[in-house]
Amino acid sequence: MRSQHGPRVAVVGAGLGGLALARVLQLHGRSVTVLEREPARGARPQGGSLDIHPDTGQTALRAAGLLDRFRALSRPEGQEWRRVDPVTALPLPGPGHDEEGQREPGDSPEIDRGQLRGLLLESLTEGTVRWDSAVTGATPLGDGTWRLHLADGGTEDADLVVGADGAWSRLRPALSDAVPGYTGVTFVETGLDDCDIRHPALARTVGAGTLLAASDGKALLAQRNGDGHIRVYAAFRAPRDWRSAAGVRADDAAAVRARLLKHFDGWDEGLLRLLRENDSGFVDRPVFVLPVPHTWEHVPGITLLGDAAHLMPPVGLGANLAMLDGADLAHALVREPGVAEAVRAYEDRMLPRSARAARECLDTLDHLIPPTDS
After folding, report:
1. How far is CA 126 from the centre of its chain?
2. Which residues are CB-neighbours of 31 under 8 A, at least 6 positions away?
3. I want to staple 185 with a disulfide (CB 3.0 to 4.6 A). Which of 206, 242, 243, 287 is the partner?
4. What is the tens place of the pLDDT at every residue in 257-302?
5. In angstroms, rounded to a whole number, what is the distance separating the alpha carbons of residues 314 and 319?
6. % helix / strand / coil in the chain, to the nearest 5?
7. Is 153 exposed, middle or buried (0-12, 13-18, 19+ CB in 10 A)?
8. Domains of the chain as residue ranges with CATH
C-alpha cells in the first residue's frame, strides 16, 4: 500500500543522483528511503573535482533548492583549463582555447565531489539514508511492487525501487542484460598534497584548474582540488591487466612510477615531475562503459539513474547527468498520476538524453586517447 506521503520509494545508492532524487522528493513532501552499502558518510574518499554545468547539474541543484549554497562552496576559478605541448610544456591554442592555451570562460564552477555530496546529505531529513545497508538484489512481488534483499538478511518493500548504485549496479539485471565493458583506456591516479606549500613549482604549472598534455595515444592530466591537493592522472591505452603484462607488482609504487616514466619518455621534465614527486601511491582507474545506446523495456516499479543507467567515460558529464536524472524522476513522481506513468515519462526523457551524452563522451575519449588503429 502507498503511504500517506505518496508511493514508497526506495533508492539504492547514496551517490549524487540518488541524493538529488531524495532531496527533490522531500521538498515536495514525499517520503523516500536511501539504502547505502557504505558503513558511514566518511567511509571512503569521494573522488576529485567536478565542473557543474548550468543545463544539467545546476538545473538539478536549483530544483533541489541548493543552487545558492552550491555557488557559495564552488570555485569559479577552477574552470581554468590549460592545454600544453607535452615536449615543451608551452601553451597550445585550439578550439575553445585562447593563445595561452586556456579554455574560454563559462559558467561551470568546480566543487569537490565530497563537498557536493555533503551538501546533498545535509539537506535531507535525518534518517533518510540508511548506512551499512548493502542491497544484493530485488524480487518483483507480482503487483508492481518490489522486495529488496539486503546483505544482512533483511528486506525492504517498495512501490518503486531506483537503482542509483553505480557502474556495477545490483538492480540493473532486473531491467537489462548489459554489463560494462572495458574501453581499452586506463587512468592511473596519483596525487600531490599541500601543493602550494610542498610543490609550489608544480602548483604554478597546474594553475587554478586543470592541466592537460596529450600526444601519441597518451595523456597527463592534473586537477587542482579544493583542499590544496592536486590529482594527477596518467592515461593511456593498455590491457586491463597492464601491470601484470609489464611485470609490475600492484603494490610496488616505485616500479609503477618507473614504468610510467618510461611510457612518457621524452616529455617535458616539468610535467614528468607530476609523476616523480607524487605523495600517494598509484591507483588504476580503468574506464568501463555501458553499450550505447543502453535502453530497456519498461518494467513496473523499477528504474535506474546515473552510472547504473548510462555509465560513460569520466570526461565531465556523468555526475551532472546523474543529478539531473534524480531531479527529473522526482518531478515525474510528483506530477504524474501514478508510479508507472512517472517512470515511463522519466525514461522517455532520460534514455535518449543519456545516449547522446554517452556518444559525446566516447568521442571525447577517443580524441584524447586515440585508438591504436586510428
Report:
1. 25
2. 3, 5, 6, 8, 9, 25
3. 287
4. 999 999 999 999 999 999 999 988 999 999 999 999 999 999 999 9
5. 9
6. 35, 25, 40
7. exposed
8. 9-74+111-180+290-368 (3.50.50.60), 83-108+184-287 (3.30.9.30)
Per DSSP, the three-state class of 367 is helix
pLDDT band at 251 (very low <50, low <70, confident <90, very high): confident
What integer pLDDT is reported at residue 97 of this predicted model?
A: 47
Q: Is 122 exposed, middle or buried (0-12, 13-18, 19+ CB in 10 A)?
A: exposed
Question: Which triple of cell numbers denotes residue 238?
Answer: 593498455
Which set of grid coordinates corresponds to residue 191? 596525487
Q: Is the pLDDT of residue 134 over 50?
A: yes
**Which strand (E) or helix (H) includes residue 198?**
helix 195-198
**Rounded distance between C-alpha atoms, residue 361 and residue 20, angstroms:** 23
Give Cβ neighbours of residue 109 (< 8 Å, ≥ 6 apart): 51, 52, 71, 74, 75, 76, 78, 79
pTM above threshold 0.90: yes
Do residues 222 and 213 make contact, with C-beta atoms less than 8 angstroms apart?
Answer: no
44 annotated as belonging to a binding site for a ligand: yes
51 is annotated as contributing to ligand binding: yes
Decide if pLDDT at 366 tops 60.
yes
Strands 33-35 and 129-130: parallel
The answer for residues whose C-beta is within 8 angstroms of residue 94's C-beta and 6 or more apart is 83, 101
Q: What does DSSP say about strands 160-163 and 9-12: parallel, antiparallel, or unpaired?
A: parallel
- Taking a C-beta distance cutoff of 8 angstroms, is the pair 10, 35 a contact? yes
Vertex 117: Cα angle to 112 and 120 (nearest 5): 130
Strand order from edge to edge, sheet including 33-35: 129-130, 33-35, 9-12, 160-163, 302-304
Residue recorded with cell 573535482: 49
Query: How many helices, marked H, and strands, marked E, lie in the chain?
Result: 12, 16
Name the residue with cell 594527477. Answer: 232
Kindly tell me the burial class for residue 111, based on how many C-beta atoms sit within 10 Å of its own C-beta (0-12, 13-18, 19 or more).
Answer: buried
